[in-house]
Amino acid sequence: PRPGHWNQAFLLRTPELALPRLESALRALAEHHDVLRLRYHGTAQSYGPAAPFPGLNVLDVRSLPAAEGTPEFTEALERVLTEWQSGFDLSAGPVYAVGYLHG
């Protein structure tokens, strides 16, 4: 089992966002909320004062190799999202990811 692979994913539909402003807001959120810096070591929890922001994943869905609404599109999108959600490391971080899909 990979304990860092479990996650809660959700999607918010928004008008187009300015990526620099979004990334700045996410950095401020990570600096403000200790829980986003939590690390787990066995049964103990800890957090550091300067855990690096994991960055913003961005995908232009028009770059996927199939037309939206097709099974091939869905499979390609699921591969990208699974990759984004599979990089968590409970003891070293990151413990969360943020993605922005557009197009």
UniProtKB/TrEMBL annotation:
GO BP field: lipid biosynthetic process
A GO molecular-function descriptor: catalytic activity
InterPro entries (alphabetical): CAT-like_dom_sf, Condensation_dom
Stretches assigned to the Condensation domain: 3-99
Protein name: Condensation domain-containing protein
Provenance organism: Streptomyces morookaense
Organism lineage string: Bacteria, Bacillati, Actinomycetota, Actinomycetes, Kitasatosporales
